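note to self — DONT lose this again. spent like an hour looking for the file last time. sequence + predicted structure for the chain T wanted, 136 res
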Amino acid sequence: MTASSGQALPKNSIDSMLKVAENMETKQLELLADSIVRISAKRRAETAKETEEELIAKVKWDFTDAERRRFRKLIKKRQTSEISEAEMNELWTFIEMSEELTVRRVENVLKLASLKGIPFQEMYDSLGFKKRRNVL
């Protein structure tokens, strides 16, 4: 158990609070218990909101415009067979990064869908992703 400052309360403080609670009338005890449940729910909701915002940020993360332009340029060079070995290595790096980004995006959309209790496709669509033939 922690105080609002985030520091743990000493065991004797908790014991003291429990002794006070034991001496309360039933109605007062029920009001106290309801208040504690509301405080706990509010804290959990704040944590869930932060988690949701963090997951959405991870889902929305993407290549910068400059990276995307470079990736497209390397793809075009490869298609015309005008790509150097160094550029081909760079292209492979972009491909690996793109695949990793896709995997992380799917994982985070799944986490969001689970958090909200909705199907994956509904969550994915709600984030504004459009079906694209080519992500670049």
